[in-house]
Amino acid sequence: MNSHTQSPQASLRWMVEMGADEAILDAPIDRYAESAAQLAARQAKTSAPPPPSDLREQPAQPTAPSQKPLAPSQGVVDSRAAAAKANSLAELREAIAAFEGCALKQTATNLVFSDGNPEADLMILGEAPGAEEDRQGVPFVGASGKLLDLMLAAIGRDRNSAYISNVLFWRPPGNRTPTDAEVAVCMPFVQRHIALVRPKVLVFVGGASAKALLDRKEGIMRLRGKWYDYGNADLDATVPAMATFHPAYLLRSPGQKREAWRDFMAVQARLADFG
Ligand code: URA
Asked: CA within 20 to 30 Å of 261's CA: 13, 170, 207, 270, which one?
């Protein structure tokens, strides 16, 4: 028996066992009916006579690389304008809370802005809130947050001596990987956030955070364990930044904790240089 012919209760039980932990819409969508309609549309299309040859799709031609960068989306234009007006962390939080250009806000329970001490010399940036963070409106309070606290403790720190946030302020449904567009639309707020806190050292935990903030394509395996000069238009000077593994990854791959520990030791030494 496949899941289509099972009772609604059995289907629901199966979805929960597969990891679904919330309903995204008020009413269910029958994906089988949807795919049947798509199939019918495709069959109608393939049985239609072929278009005249000059209307047929031509094979893709190699194009010269465009000289102009892509224009930013309206969402990015709006988030840049809203972020630029924020002159304090309170104003930035308000601007993000009022922002309607990121669809994640619609499915999230709470805005997750930051935790810790904004006066701290160390700022940690993760990827996106998970289920527990979404419930509480506080970053890194679930299982990976507990490990992050232990990583901070290893360098003699806690949330009174570190400031914590993410590159996304709302939880992606079901903890899916954020899209490039979602990261791009939040980035002006994140840049302003860093400029307003102006930490002495930044730590990017996880590939999503490191890639977005360093504007790099490599994965975290290549990016971690090195120092970068992080800069953005709102900062008058660059900030030393370290990329390291995300605690959620370390929970799945504890063998890598030793590397993360090395990265945090380097962070501690760098902070000690500042006195
Ligand atoms: N993972 C993150 O990257 N951030 C959080 O706040 C929680 C889990």
From this structure: 170
